[in-house]
Every structure is written in C-alpha cells, then in structure tokens.
Model the fold of this input.
Amino acid sequence: MDKIVDKIWRFFSSVKLAIVLILIIIATAIIGTVIQQGLPDEMYMKHYGMSVFHVLNAFDLFDMYHSWWFELLLMMFIVNVIVCTWERLPAIFKMFSNPKLKLPVEHLNAFKEKATIPYNGSRQTLIKNLQQKLKEIYKSPIHDDSKEGDYLYLEKGRIARFGPYVTHISLIIIFVGVLIGSFFGFESYLNLVPGESSDVVRTLRTNEKITLPFTIKCNHFNVEFYNSGIPKAYKSDLSILSGNTLVARKVIDVNKPLTYKGITIYQASYGQAGASNFSLALQGGDHNVENDVSLNLHQLYHIAGDTSIEVLDYAQNYQGFGPTILVGVYKGSKLMNTGIYLQKYPDFHGAERVDGYTIKFLKADESFYTGLQVAKDPGAPYVAAGAIVLIVGLIMSFFSYRRRIWIFIPDSPSSQSFVIAGVADRNKYSFEMEFEKIVQEIKKGVNV
Amino acid sequence: MMHIGHQTNTLLLSIATFVYVVAMFFYLFGLVFKKKYLDIAGFVVFVVGFLIETAGLAARWVESYHLDYGHIPITNLYESLIFLSWTIALTYIIVDLKYKIRKLGFPVSLTAFIFMAYASFSPDVSSRIEPLVPALKSNWLVFHVITSFFGYAFFALAFGASVFYLISDWYTRHTNGKVLAYLPSTKILDDMSYKLIIIGEILLAIGIITGAAWADYAWGRYWSWDPKETWSLITFLIYVVYLHLRYSWGWHGRAAAIFAIVGFGFVLFTYLGVNLVLSGLHSYGSA
Ligand code: HEM
Done:
C-alpha cells in the first residue's frame, strides 16, 4: 500500500510530468479554439455531418473546457504543483536558515567560475583585508573556519529562490478560488422591460431557473447612440426589492455593475422589445396649423378627407442617416404611396406633401429591454489575490538571482594562495562578468 | 464623412512608416559593409521614425477627442498594428541604450515597417477613428492592451536575438570556431534572449490578469475560454515550459533559441492569427 502511495507521490513530484501535462493542456486547448464551443447541436450536425458530429460529441469537443477529461488534466496539473511545492519547500527553508558556509575544495574546483590568487603576508591580515574589500565592493562575507583552513562565504539574491514557490503557491490559491466559484457561484441572465421586475434568473450554459433572494426591478432603461449608429452607452435604473421594500437602487452601466448581498448585476446587453411610439409634426391644411401627433407602429392616423397615414416601419439607423421611419399614405383603405422621413434631416422630404401637409418625424420612443447578467462568484477574491501573488512571485524570481561565492584559504605553511569560486542559479553569463570583476578587485586590493 | 489620409495622424504615421524603411536600409548596409557609422545612422533615423510615430499616435488621440469619441488609440486593428510597432520600437530603443546591440535594429525596423505598412495599405484595415462601444470603455482595458503589447514586444525582441544567435552559432560551427565579428557573442545573445523572455512573460501575465479583471467588471466572469483568452494562456504556458526547461534541465544555447523562435509563433498567432484565421472557421457560427 505504502509503495503505491509512494509511487504516485513520486509520479506527481516530477517536473517532467509538469512539462508533459502543460504540453497536453496546450494541445487540447487549441482544439477548443478551432471548434467553436457551446453552439446548439443542430449547427454542428449541419457543419460536420452526422458521423463526424457523433465522434466529436463523444469526446465532448463541443464543450471541451468543461468536459471530464479536460478537468481531469487541470486536476492532475494542480496536484503536480502541490506535490512539487510540498516536496521542495522544506529544502528551501533549510537553505535559508542553514546556508552551506563550507564546501570541500574539490567542489569549489568543479565550479566554472573560479580563481586561485596568490598572496603575501599572514593569513590573518589577508582575511581582514578580504573582509574589508568585499564589504566595499560586494557584501560582508561570513567567516567560518575548519581544520583545513578558513572560509569566507558570500550570498546575494536569496529571495529569488523563494520566487518560484510563491508563484506555484499562487496557482494553488487561484485554483481554490476557481473551485469555490464553481461550487458556490452561478452565472445567469435576466431580460427586463422597463417597469418589469423579477426574482427568477436563468443560468448561462444550462438555462436552469434560479430564484434570487430579492427582486430586481427595472425602472428605466436608456440607450444612446453615436451618429454612426453604434451604441454609445446603455444604462439601467434598477431597484432591488426585498419583499415590497426598496433596499437598493442604482443606475448601472456597462463596466459599472451593482452588487447586493454578494450577487452582482451587470449591464450586459439590450434588445428591442415590442412596438415603438413615434412623435410626428403635421403642418399645413386649411389654416396652416402645426399638429404634434403621437402614433404607435401600424396605427392609422386620419389627416383630412379620406387620407390617412401609418408608420409602417422603423430603423434606428437607416443607411447611416440615423433614426428613420417609413410612412404609408392611404386613400380610404388603399395604400397610395410610401415615404421615408429622417429625424435628423427634416427637410429631406420637405418638398413632398401629403394632402397639403408636411410631415416631420420628431422622435421615436423605442422600447428596449435591458439584458442583465446576474452572477455570484464567492471565489473571485481568491482568484484576484492569487493573481497578485503570481505577479509578485514572478518578479521575485526574476528581478534577482541567487549567487554564492566561497573563498577558501588553506591552512598550510607551503601554500601562499587562496581559492575563490562561485555559482549562480540563473543568469550564468551575468554572473560570469560579476565574478570576473570581483576577482580583479580582490587581486588589486589584496596584493598592494 | 471623413477622408482617409487627410488627417494629421495618418499623415504622420505614413511618414514614420517611410522613415522606418530608411532606418532599415542603414542597418542592412551596416550588416553588409560592417561599418559602425552605418549602424549609428540607422539608430538615429530609427529614433526619428519613432518620434514621428509617437507624434502620430498623439495626434490621433487628440483627433479622437475632436470627434467626441475621446479614446486612447489602441482599439481597432489599424490602431493596434500601429501601437504594436510603437511598443516594439520603444522596447528596442530601451534595450539598445542598455546593451548597445545596434544590429538588432535591422529585424526591428523591418518588423515595425511591416506592421505599419500592413495597417496603412491593407484594404482590410480601416484607418478611420471609430467610437468605442460601451464595453470597451474601461481603464482595465487600457492597462490590458498596454501590458500585453509590451509583452509581445519583448517576445519579438527575444525572437530577433534568438535568430541572431542561430546565425552566429551556425557561422562559428561552419568556420572552425571563428566568431562573427559584427554580431554580439552567442553568450550575450543567449543571455539577452532569456532576459527579454522573462520580462515578456511577466508583462503577458499582467496582461492576462488585467484582461480577466476587465471581463469580470463587464460581465461578471473573469474567464470564459474564448479563443483570444485561450491563446494568450497557451502562449503564457509555452514560455512557462521554456523557463522550466531552462531552469531544471539547463536548456540554453541552440535549443533555447529554437524554442524562443517557435514561441514567438504562438505570440503572433495570439495577436493576429486568432482574429484572422480562427474567425474564418467561426464564421458559420454567426450565420
Ligand atoms: C503555470 C504553471 C507554472 C508557472 C507559472 C511556474 C513558474 C515557475 C517559475 C517562474 C519558476 C522559476 C524559474 C526560473 O527561475 O527560471 C519555476 C521553477 C520551478 N517550477 Fe514552476 N511553474 C509552473 C508549473 C510548475 C509545475 C506544475 C511544477 C511541478 C513539477 C513546477 C516545478 C518547478 C520547479 C521544481 C522549479 C524550480 C524551483 C526551484 O528554484 O527550486 N512548476 N516555476
């Protein structure tokens, strides 16, 4: 039993596994960007044909990021991170509390960066000189001695050794946040026409009903457009009701949601709902009076004699000219003529009169529904915290690097030289230059 | 309606495109004739091109306010191509001032030119200043684009350094150890490529995170596996593999250079491919 656990543990503690897993995750994640995800089945059947459809569907490739096998891959990956971190962290702490001050000369000689420097005078003076010099040019060394001789130890950029662990732990924090979100959170939508209210929302992917602990009421919805017809802003004035009492009210905007009781309501979209109401000005007739009239879509309006008009159609932005209506002119019940009226260019149709009347299109009261996204994600703060820790870890890892230098001065009457050797965890090239400089400085400083 | 090409910003940006070509030729002659003064001339011309491009972007920003749209010029394909060439140019200038690796100026000015020319001359890319739809009005988005693009820029330079590494390495191996005098040593190129990737990776991480924050503010979900998001994560992971191979296996030199070059393919696909290639495959979805 222990043996199996041991084996599994060893399997998950390998960096090789990490690389293989990441490469598999990359390869599979690409599939999901090539096959569009989450469309209705009929679209896939039409596009791929039935037999291909069945194969792809069997592998959950139409919703692969939520499939069991992709989630299993992510699980394995996170277990990998946890085991890796768990196993190596004690060594890191030990290294911190108990650095290797002495290394056998054979080790020192095996390093790529090393030098042997002759000196005159006594060992004691040399050590004092070195300590002084190193403090000036690099760092105060730690002095230690053994029966073979004296050691001076220098270390810089220790914090960088912690960086990878901070980064890996951040991944675990993010993962915890994602798990919390997927168990205790939901994502849903709700469409409301102004005046309407509801406490039931539908989830995004599965379209299930969820009842909220409060009611959302849309008091107003307002959308503004640029001249080109692209939406400029859309905002909903929302009330949150608990029973019949108003507990919160806010105008929400895209990127400016409302949060109540841990549930956040976002302005996600909007759409056109129902018939619109149009204001027209009619001018002319016998007394040249101006009449403002208000019409619904397809409502017949009687002008004079047997002539009447009707708004047949409406476009928010007809060929870039802005709000436009199509008006039909009737004689009796017969449609005689149609004309286009532009809100922004009232004279565009000025010459044409209907039975002596000019028609101006003043404005349209469009009725829109507001598209709200209603979401709860108690894991999000953890994900955010993990993200910050991730960046901190990366910066710790990379804005410094650990390098260690040992100086060994053998205790032998015959030898009048000492060894200096060093190693860096990363940035070997930068260290090479640094090391060379230190050696030069020492040579100058010691043999005056 | 506005007339394309009659505005200050597009005029300045066209001039900058031209100046980058001039810089590129100086650098090219510098490589061919091995004269230092040609490199220096290339660098000076390049900086001039960069300043003109900066002015062009600033003018565009100001003009967007005159049009009442008022937004930083990084929001459509035209602007993003220009902005990417700008970030690459700025990153190169900073790296050059630190490392004095003039030679990198050739691929950099070529790249800056290609992006600008594509923006200016491709019929698919409109240079009109367009208003922002509400979802794009977010400071997170501004951070997101700036950090991601500087990330791309550092990866691009790492790519350049890695290509030079391979050239230099190839030359040394085929001439019995002679060194290409006019390129930095392979050691420097290897080290440089690695450091550039590190900075690129940190910026890309910040870019992904700020993008997620933006999505969270706009829609209440920080991650939805859409192709652009997914590809940026893939690119991040590719370089995670690079870092681990380098750290735990001691990969460096030729293998690392080839990896960095392949990695940049992922960067390019994340930036352009997702929009140009994948949207084609997706078009049936909107039918
Ligand atoms: C997205 C996932 C990951 C990220 C962002 C990440 C990040 C990092 C970073 C930045 C370093 C420092 C590298 C350097 O100094 O050049 C590192 C080192 C390392 N990583 Fe990861 N890593 C990830 C996944 C993993 C996994 C799954 C494992 C599990 C085997 C792992 C094991 C290691 C080890 C053993 C080191 C060396 C640590 C040391 O200095 O002792 N990493 N990682």
Remarks:
- The CA atoms of residues 169 and 186 of chain B lie 7 Å apart.
- Residues 1-5, 280-287 of chain B have pLDDT under 50 and may be disordered.
- Chain B touches chain A through 51 residues (CB under 8 Å).
- The two ends of chain B are 30 Å apart (CA to CA).
